[in-house]
Amino acid sequence: MCWGSHPATPTCRKPWPKRRKLRSPSDPEVVPMLSEFKKFALRGNVIDLAVAVVIGAAFGKIVSSLVADVVMPVVGMLVGGVDFADLVIVLKAATADAPAVTIGYGKLIQTIVDFIIVAFAVFMFIKLYNRLKAKEEAAPAPPPAPPAPSAEEKLLTEIRDLLKKP
Fold this sequence. Notes:
The chain has 166 residues and is mainly alpha-helical. It has a domain at 30-137: Non-ribosomal Peptide Synthetase Peptidyl Carrier Protein, Chain A (Orthogonal Bundle). The chain has four helices and two strands. A two-stranded antiparallel ribbon has the order 1-2. The protein starts with 29 loop residues before the first helix and ends with a helix.
């Protein structure tokens, strides 16, 4: 490939690739693509998914704060005044030139507790959703309408009505 070299170079026999011109939104080839994208983006499922992602991210921050600021200090106090954020294993002590090399297993414990709370909340939400879905599916169907009378039944009804007349 010699597209990066000068076109007058004798070793280059390939022409420069054609440049694609930018298309305006009113271009007849672009309009169907934009309308198709609009139809896709405005479907209920895509919007529901976007809302779920935003709410899930906010919920994750709330749970992380709950674990770091409420749950772990209480657990640390019950265990003996331990701050889980400070629990580390020192692999190499600090020197004048470099900081200590450590493994922060306290933060790992906090993250695991955080995950367990989020997983439990998601599990409970799915369980509630499945229960509501099952109730909706198990709702009794309305009784079917009585079948239309046959020709014989219609004839018998007419005879009965004629016999009742004085």
